Amino acid sequence: MKLKGLRAGLLSVWLSGFLLIALSFYGTQLLSPSSLDGPFRYSSRSIAAAPPKITIFTALRSSSSLDEDSQAFLAIRSWLALSSQVTVVLFSPSSASSFTDKFGSRLLLDSTIDFTFLGTPFLHSMLARSEAYQSDIAVLMDPETVLLPDFVSALSFTNQLDRDWLLVSSSVSIPSFPFNWDKTGHFWRQGNGKRVRFGELQKMISLRSWQSNSTESKTILAWNNVDLPLHCGVLPPFLYQRGTYNQWIINEAMSCKRRFVFDATSTISSFYLGNEDNRSDNNVSEPKTRNWEYIGNSHLGQLYGSLFSKSFTLPKLLKCNKHYMFVNVSDRSVDLSILEGKGVGFRRREKISACISRTKSRSLNLDIVQKDEAVPLLKFPFDLQSLLPLVADKNRTVVLSIAGYSYKDMLMSWVCRLRRLKVPNFLVCALDDETYQFSILQGLPVFFDPYAPKNISFNDCHFGSKCFQRVTKVKSRTVLKILKLGYNVLLSDVDVYWFRNPLPLLQSFGPSVLAAQSDEYNRTVPINRPRRLNSGFYFARSDAPTIAAMEKVVKHAATSGLSEQPSFYDTLCGEGGAYRLGDDRCLEPETNLTVQFLDRELFPNGAYRDLWLKEDVRAECEKKHCFVLHNNWISGRLKKIERQMMRGLWEYDASMRMCVEL
Ligand SMILES: *[C@@H]1O[C@H](CO)[C@@H](O)[C@H](O)[C@H]1NC(C)=O
Ligand SMILES: *[C@@H]1O[C@H](CO)[C@@H](O)[C@H](O)[C@H]1NC(C)=O
Ligand SMILES: *[C@@H]1O[C@H](CO)[C@@H](O)[C@H](O)[C@H]1NC(C)=O
Ligand SMILES: *[C@@H]1O[C@H](CO)[C@@H](O)[C@H](O)[C@H]1NC(C)=O
Ligand SMILES: *[C@@H]1O[C@H](CO)[C@@H](O)[C@H](O)[C@H]1NC(C)=O
Ligand SMILES: *[C@@H]1O[C@H](CO)[C@@H](O)[C@H](O)[C@H]1NC(C)=O
Ligand SMILES: *[C@@H]1O[C@H](CO)[C@@H](O)[C@H](O)[C@H]1NC(C)=O
Ligand SMILES: *[C@@H]1O[C@H](CO)[C@@H](O)[C@H](O)[C@H]1NC(C)=O
C-alpha cells in the first residue's frame, strides 16, 4: 500500500514536471514564430554552430533617406532580421538619429568617413573605418540589397575554414517585390496575409538571374579576420557604389593570395528592386552629372590595378542536399581538401558530380578590363558657375584654394584638414591639367582656370619668383570672378593650416570690409605697415565696394611687374600706406572699402613669434586659440612641406592615398 502511494506521488511529481516542461516548451514556441512549419523566418536558430558575429558596412548618400518605403529601409530590416549576431554600420554624412530609433541598437550610424562634395562616400575611407569595429566577419554591400537567411548559413559554414577568405556574391534585380514585412519584422506576408515561403523567394531570384544579363549587378563582399587587409595594394579613392571597385578588390585579393577568394552567388539569395533604369543612383535625369563618378572609378582601377588584363574564374561555393562544397570551375573538380575534417558526407565522386549538374548555379560576371587601354581624360560636368551653388554655404560663401601639380599633396593635406573640421564649402581652382585630373579623381570640386600660365608645375614657384608672380595674379582674377557671380570668397592658400573654422568670425566683420592676414612679423610695429597685406588668406564679400576695389587690384596687378601682393596693398592702403586708419585698418577712399588686418595672435603668419620653431606648434597655437597658421616666410616647396610634416600639421598620407587621423 505504502509503495503504491509513493509511486502515485512520484508519478504526480513527474507528471506535473512534465506538464511544466511541456508548458514552458509551448510558451517558447508561442514566443518564437519559427514553430510554424513551412514558412521560413529570419532567425539564427536554424544554424547549428554558434553564429559568428557579422558586421555589415554600408553607406547612404546625403540626399538618400531611410523612409519606411525606401529600398534601403526594406533591405536593412532584412539584414537585422537575419540573426541577433548581425550589426549594421551605416555611414552617412548626417548623424540624424531618427533611423536608429526605428531599427534599435544593432544599427550604428557613423559620420566620421569622408564624402565628396556631392555626398558620395569614399570606399577607402569606409574600409579603413571598418577596422575600428570588432567582428568575426565583415560584409560590404549596397544599402538596397535584401538578404535572405541562407546568407548567414553560408557565412557560418565558411567561417569554419581554417584559412582566411573573401566571399563574393552577386545579387539579382527583381522588378517588384509584392510582399510586406509582418509586424514582428521576422517574415514577409503576401497581399492576402499568407506568409511567404523561403523557397518561393529563392525561385523568384533564380528565375530572374537567368533573364538578367546585367554585368553591373550589385556585389556583396564578406571576409573574416577583419584585421588582415583584403589585398596587397593600396586602395585608390574609389567612390562607393560607382562601379569597378568590387572587380578591383577581387583581382587584387586573387593576386595577393593572402585569402581564399570564392564565389558564393549560388548559395546566397539576395536581390534588389527595380530595373537598372530607375534606380536612384542611376537617375535618368541625372546621368550627365553622375557619369563621371563611374568613369572616375574606372580610371582609378586602371591606373592602380595590377591584374586587370588577366582572365580568371573563381572557385564556387555550392550547396546541395544540405551540404556545402567548393567546386573549382576551371576543371569542375570538387575541392575536398578544404572540407577535410568538417564531417561533410560527400565522398563518392559520382554522387558529387550528379549533384553539381543538378545545381543550376548562378555565378558572378567578371568583366575583364584591359590595363593597357589608353586612359582618356576625364570630363568633369562642372565648371565654376555650376559648382558654386553646390558647395556654397547658407551665407553664399566659398573657401577657395588655387593649386598647381607640385603642390598636390599639400592641397590634399589642406582638403583633409577642412574635411576634418567639417568645412564642406571649399573649391579648388586647378592651374594645370594634371592638377585638374588629379582633383577630379580625388572627388574634389575643382575647376580649371583656362587663363592660368601653363608651366607652373615646378619646385621653384616660391615667393618672389617670376612664376609666383604669375600664379598670384590668377588668384585675384578668380576671386573677382566669383564675387561677381554673387558669392563671398575666403581665399586660403594650401599652405595655410587651419586649426579652427574662421568663417563665423570672418562673416562677422560685415559689409564693405575685406579682412586679410598681416604679413608683419615685428611685434612692436603696426600690422598695417606698407606691403604687409598677405594676399594668401583673405575674406572678400560679394558687395559693390569690394568688387570695385578688387577690380582695381586686378587692373593694377596686370600692369605691375611684381606679384599681386604689392598691388593689393598699394591699391587698398595707398602707396606708402597713405590710406591707413589706426594700426590695423585701411580705407580705400574711392570705393569706401575698409581693409581689416586680422589679429596676428589669431591669424599668425609664418614669421610671427617664430611659431614654426616651437617644439609643439599645435599646442602653442591652440593655447592662443589660433584659427590658422600660415606656412609662409620659408623658401622652397620641399622645405615648406618638410616643416609642416615635421610639426605634425600634415593630414594626408600620399602612400595610402587618404586622409589620416591625427
Ligand atoms: C541583354 O542584353 C542585350 C544586349 O546586349 C539586350 O538587347 C537585352 O535587352 C538584354 N536583356 C535583358 C533582360 O536585360
Ligand atoms: C521603376 O519604374 C517602374 C515603371 O515606371 C515602376 O513600376 C517601378 O516601381 C520603379 N521602381 C522603382 C524602384 O522606383
Ligand atoms: C532624379 O534626379 C532629379 C534631379 O536631381 C530629382 O529631382 C529626382 O527626384 C530624381 N529621381 C529619382 C528617382 O531619384
Ligand atoms: C583549380 O584547378 C586548377 C586546375 O586544376 C588549378 O590550377 C587551380 O589552382 C585550382 N584553383 C583553386 C582555387 O583551387
Ligand atoms: C614656360 O613654357 C614655355 C614653353 O612651353 C617656355 O618657353 C618657358 O621658358 C617656360 N617658362 C618657364 C618659367 O619655365
Ligand atoms: C553666416 O553669417 C552669420 C552672420 O552674418 C554667422 O552668424 C553664421 O555663423 C554664418 N554661417 C556660416 C555657416 O558661416
Ligand atoms: C621692430 O621694430 C622696431 C621699431 O621699428 C625696431 O627697433 C626693431 O629692431 C624691430 N625688430 C625686428 C626684429 O625687426
Ligand atoms: C564713400 O563715403 C563717403 C562718405 O561717407 C561718401 O560721400 C561717398 O559717396 C562714398 N563713396 C562711395 C563710392 O560709396
From TrEMBL:
SUPFAM superfamilies: Nucleotide-diphospho-sugar transferases (SSF53448). It is found in: Golgi apparatus membrane. Keywords: Cell wall biogenesis/degradation, Glycosyltransferase, Golgi apparatus, Signal-anchor, Transferase, Transmembrane. InterPro entries: Nucl-diP-sugar_transferase, Nucleotide-diphossugar_trans, RAY1-like. It is a single-pass type II membrane protein. It is an enzyme of class 2 (transferase). Its main location: Golgi. Residues 422-643 form the Nucleotide-diphospho-sugar transferase domain. Its EC number is 2.4.2.-. Belongs to the glycosyltransferase 77 family. This is Glycosyltransferase. It comes from Camelina sativa (False flax).
